[in-house]
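In response to reviewer comment 3 from the previous cycle, which asked for concrete evidence that the modeling workflow produces usable outputs, we include below a single protein chain processed end to end. The sequence was submitted unchanged, and the resulting structure tokens are shown without manual editing.
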Amino acid sequence: MKHLAIFNEKECIDKILRGEKTMEGRFSREKDLPYGKIKKGDEIFLKESGGPILGKVEADNVLFFDNLEPEMLGKLRREYGKDLVVPDKFWEKYSKSKYATLIFLKNPQRFLSKIKFKKKDRRGWVVIEEDK
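The workflow returned the following structure tokens.
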């Protein structure tokens, strides 16, 4: 499967492409994508919000969590915070999340030229090609 991950901060994409950020986490109150859809081996294209696709990465492993409570969120923060490379305000913003998708990343590739992708909605994740 192929996915499009949208990031509000270009620096986050740059950290992934430099290999500094080895995990992506998506937290939500509902079962929003990529929850339940992404799996090991899937390609993830990295798009800047309002901008182009800058590169891609592969999902090395994926963990899903549901019915999250503050205690479990704290555990996820302690266990995976270093690999997620997110500021404290991230954890505050998503403190009421009930679902989490943690994606271990490998094989980051920066594209030589930026790829335009027309997307007009506010979704932060899009499945762009399903397995057949």
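Residues 70-84 form the longest helix (15 residues). We consider this sufficient to address the reviewer's concern, and the full set will be provided in the supplementary archive.
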